[in-house]
Design goal:
six-stranded mixed beta sheet; alpha/beta; eight-stranded mixed beta sheet; Rossmann fold; 7 helices; OB fold (Dihydrolipoamide Acetyltransferase, E2P)
């Protein structure tokens, strides 16, 4: 049937309606497209697929990648970037209303950069034939990286992949990790090639060591701007005691440490804690300490502080951890999240405990994909 794409919703789907008014979600629809679709059965929302774009939206563009729609890496290369940003702001706003229960939402600022060549990290799969690339969407089938490279990867990674394509003997199935730091390409798991244990980054005037397998923000253009948003929201003062939860290798806390009295970082990954301590020492920062704790476990108490930064994985926070945070009664909590649905869920629980969302920024850390980073400032009301 012929229908019109109304908007893009959570998960990157285009929302349209069937003849009976039922909602149908399709991939690769662009708001304003008139499309011919087929769809499945169901009592509520149904899923469908586009057979033909009858009349393309003015917001549609030609994707630069020849394997877009087959590769599972990108969702929005067919959408003009300014409209992708608009769609992501709308998704975050809808999540805060629907999942966060907010009637009044602060203005959602947008932080963005170059949508291509930004990604400093990838997990590359390979097979016995020496083909390497990414998984197909909703499948473990392998889509080979085009000869011209992956459009969203740091060009240094693409150049490195070209060099090893014919030099490495891939005689089994597997995967390898590849990252870029400030000075070179780092790698682990390439057959016959020595692994790197660490990766070195330069951020906010700091030289930072991270484990090759450990978390680090993937957008090389936006890391410092993202930290600046967090810094502005936390309003650092010299007498502050700052608690940095899910601190990783210490990048956020150490970037702010010289503006506050003390930083206490807590992280569940022991390797990352060792690197955070190393980074503090190597950068001459004496007012930061780092410890290991399972923040998803039975955390019963945390040290007294007046400001808190949380940067959890996609799963977000637990109600138990929020309860412990609220008991400390911090003046400001800054919450950075890579999933707007769990962020919104947690904001709803914070509201029941006396904290409101006063400011928020949508950081497009993952351009051309359905994912987005949200940074929110929570204060007592």
């Amino acid at each position: 049937m012929e229908t019109r794409i109304e908007k893009i919703v959570h998960g990157g789907y285009g929302l349209c309606r069937l003849e009976d008014g039922k909602v149908c979600l399709v991939r690769y629809g662009v708001p304003g497209d008139v499309v011919d679709i087929e769809y499945g059965e169901g009592k509520g929302t149904v899923f469908g697929w586009i057979k033909t774009v009858v009349r393309p939206s003015e917001k549609r563009t030609e994707p630069p990648c020849p394997v877009f729609m087959r590769c599972g890496g990108c969702d929005f290369q067919h959408v003009k970037y300014e409209y992708e940003l608009e769609a992501k702001r709308g998704i975050v706003k809808e999540d805060l209303k629907r999942l966060g229960g907010l009637d009044r939402i602060p203005e959602l600022k947008i932080l963005s950069s170059n949508p291509y060549g930004y990604r400093n990290h990838a997990q590359i799969s390979f097979d016995r034939r020496g083909v390497f690339g990414f998984f197909a969407r909703d499948s473990h089938g392998l889509i080979q990286i085009p000869d011209e490279g992956c459009a969203i990867l740091d060009p240094r990674i693409n150049d490195f992949l070209k060099k090893i394509r014919d030099r490495v003997q891939f005689n089994r199935r597997g995967s390898f990790r590849i990252r870029t730091g400030f000075d070179r390409v780092y790698k682990k798991g390439i057959p016959g090639v020595d692994d790197d244990k660490y990766c070195i980054h330069k951020v906010c005037g700091l030289t930072l060591r991270t484990g090759i397998d450990d978390f680090f923000q993937i957008n090389r253009y936006l890391i410092e701007d993202w930290i600046e948003v967090i810094r502005n929201y936390i309003e650092p003062e010299k007498n502050d005691i700052l608690l940095d939860l899910f601190c990783g290798s210490g990048v956020i806390g150490l970037a702010i440490a010289r503006e506050v009295g003390r930083v206490m970082g807590i992280e569940g990954n022991g390797r990352a804690v060792k690197n955070a301590r190393y980074n503090s020492q190597q950068n001459g920062i004496g007012n930061a300490s780092f410890s290991r704790a399972d923040l998803y476990g039975s955390v019963r108490d945390l040290e007294e502080c007046n400001k808190v930064i949380v940067n959890p994985p996609r799963a977000g926070l637990t109600e138990g951890l929020i309860d412990v945070l609220v008991e400390i009664n911090p003046q400001i909590i800054v919450y950075s999240s890579c999933d707007s649905s769990t962020f919104s869920r947690d904001i709803k629980y914070f509201l029941t405990r006396g904290y409101m969302l006063s400011d928020a920024t949508v950081v497009d850390m993952f351009p051309r994909t359905r994912h987005v980073e949200v940074v929110g400032k929570l204060v007592r009301f």
